[in-house]
Amino acid sequence: MAENTKPNIVWHENATIIVLGLYREYFSKEVWSNGNHQHPNKPIWVRYNKLIRGLPNDEGIYINKNIDIEKLGIEVRYKKFYFLNPLDSRKSYGGPTPLDKKVWNKFKSEFTEEKIKQRGRLEKEAERIIASSENSRGNKDSGEKIEYDIYGSRKEGNKVSRLQETRERDPGISRKKKQQVLKGKGFLACEACSFIFKDFYGKHGEDFIECHHTKPVAKMEHNDVTSLSDLALVCSNCHRMIHKQDPAITIDELRAIIAENK
To answer: In the chain, at which residue ranges do the beta strands (DSSP E only) sit?
Structure first.
């Protein structure tokens, strides 16, 4: 059963569980910080608005996919749990709905002083719902992926098999680029910020630097040729900043950013 709390917005159990999971995350932080109120900031609300919009209801129907993400009212729903949690002294306008109460009653045992600092059924259920949404829709409607990391730990290290098609790279041309620069200058410096690994790390950083393709490998056609002039030597930080967006920015654009913020 779903509820309308605003025109064109349909709240359902899956969405309410996600919001309760977010509430429990921040309320647990409040307990850890000895009562200092913890509250999600605006980017968190926006991320969860995107997630809720791309979330199927209990029957697998994407009923909110066309809703303006700024108008979903996640924060209002979040605050309704103030009323239901006897350990929370905060109050807000508007009481909880029957759906809020139903979801709260399902997980209220995890809001005791003994359990609030531990991961429990609520987090697992929220993770399952999020994963189901991402798997079935490719995360197109939910925006960026939201990971539950409530207590600072996640399971990692499981082996997985992937079939992936990538563009072939020739490591030999990167070595030739470094040799060319070493022969001409006698050292390897980042072409964006001038960082020299050897100066900072000593012998451990000697002859180390990354090689950036100014002509994106991903855009190359079959048997395209890369010349030394198509390569730029950059430090690891600058390399990541160049590729922080798609399409990547140029070396000159990154130099301008660095100069502007010095």
So the answer is: 3-6, 9-11, 210-213, 231-234
